[in-house]
Every structure is written in C-alpha cells, then in structure tokens.
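Lab notebook, bench 4. Continuing the backlog of folding jobs that were queued last week. Each job is logged with the same field layout so the records can be merged later without manual cleanup. Today's entry covers Iron-sulfur protein IND1, a 308-residue chain. Filled in by technician R.K.

JOB TYPE: sequence-to-structure
TARGET: Iron-sulfur protein IND1
LENGTH: 308
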Amino acid sequence: MLKIPRRLFTTTRYLFHENPLGLPRFNANANAKVKASGNDAPQMPRSQKGLPVKQNIPNVKNIILVSSAKGGVGKSTVTVNTALSLRRLGKSVGILDADIFGPSIPRLMNLSGEPRISQTSGKLLPLSNYGVQTMSMGYLVKDEQAVVWRGLMVMKALQQLLFEVEWSSTLDYLVIDMPPGTGDTQLSISQLLRITGAIIVSTPQDIALIDAVKGITMFNKVNIPIIGLVQNMSHYICPNCNHESHIFKSEGASRVAKEHELDVLANVPLDEKICFQSDLGKPIVVADPESPISKCYEEIAKAVINFH
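JOB STATUS: finished
OUTPUT FIELD FOLLOWS
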C-alpha cells in the first residue's frame, strides 16, 4: 500500500485543481502510475448544460445525510452516535466527513494518522474504529493546519472523497456528516449522488430553527427525502434531583416538524456525558450503550432502517 506524504497538503506546489488530494493515478490495464486526469469520477457541475447523472458510490447500499444549516448544533456528534447505533443494530456502516474546512470525525472517532492508498486502485483506504469505517479531510492535514482553498479546489476534493475511497466491504449505510449551510457542498452532493434520505439536526431555540427550515426547504427543492428532525440539546436533567429543565425553550422542533409534515426522530438531552465522551474519542453509544442517551441515538438509527 502507498502512503500519502503530508507535504502534499502543506505546499501549493503539489496541489492541482483536478487532484487536490494528490492521489496517484493507475493505468487500469498495466497497474502503472499515470498522470492524474481527474476524469474517472463523475464531474462536479460547473458550466456544463444540464445536471450530471446521479451515481452510486461503489460498495455502498444507502447514503444518509446528516445536515444542519446552522453550525454548532451538535450535528457531527449525532452523525457519529447514529452510525455507531446502526452498527450495534447489525448493519455495516461507514462515515464520510464532508466538512472540508472543519472536519470533526477524526477526534470523535479517536482516529488519527494518514490513510493508506490501495496499490491496485489508487484509492484512499478508510480508517476504522468501533467497527465503523471512516474517511475525513482531517486525516490528510495536521490539526493546526487550515485548509485555505477556493471553491473549485474544495469541490474537487469533495469529489475525490466521494468517489475515490475504497470501502473495504459492502456498506449497508454510508452516513455523511455534512458541513453547515446550504451551499456548494450540499448542492453538489445532491446532484451527484443517489441519496436514501436526510436527517436535519437543530437545537430548540428559534435562531437555530430558522436555519433548520432553510435546510428542509433545500432538501425539498433538490428532491431528497427527509427522514426527520433531531432536536439536540433538547432539555437538561439535573443529576441530583432528576428535574427536567428546558434551557433553550421546548417543543420547537415539534412545531417545525408539524408545519412541514415531518417526524421528530429524537429529543437528545443536553448532558455533559455526551461532550465528555466525545472529547475522549469514545462516543456515548460506545461508552454507555444502555444509557437513556444512547437509546435516543438508537431511535434515530431505527428510523433510518425503517425509512426505506
């Protein structure tokens, strides 16, 4: 297996618009390296007429998007714990971190280091932990290094993460941790891939729900079915007296879901255990799988399984 030298990501000399991740190219017949052309995967929509034909990702049965138009609502934590819950329910699962600028999956999954490259296909090989395969831009750059790229480079890197990862076995579910917003990444993924469904994560306060509605509108516009809403940081339960407090108001997600004829998949509490375990790289579903919090994520996973 080949190894990606990190210098590819620390100097512009090695970066090309058609191959920003610096992956080697192989001649399909001779197994020899060839100059990167960037033409083997579906192309990002730029100036061509019409929309690209939607593709399947090899070895992936279902693609689930976890999205939030607002940042900081706990989307990546929901992504990881939902994926791990799917794994506990007997499904083969992968996580793809589509946030090029702010990847969170490596820390949450307690993974680091550079991915290897397949000697036969030239594709990235996922890093795995807790029985789940993962791929992230966070494996390709140092923690303190910022990715300062214009849109074309970002979109091409996203394309490589989508189509140039060699998932080692057939995945029942690939859970994609989307970046916040409703921009280029969201549009490109919706146009390039056949998506099974999307989960929208929000917190209860109005300022977050306003953006959640934008996310609903976006998925409706691009014809991606919505599995439901997750209200994160829904309430706080006092560890001493078990009193339940709604710090960020209550029932906000229920109201929005009702207005848009959607389901609320779970009301995940605000609990220090979730944050503590996430920082340790041992998510709550792994650390305490029978806890009430883990059961919330299990409900989300069951909704995903029952959706199609």
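OBSERVATION: The chain has one domain: 60-110+123-136+151-307.
SIGNED: R.K.
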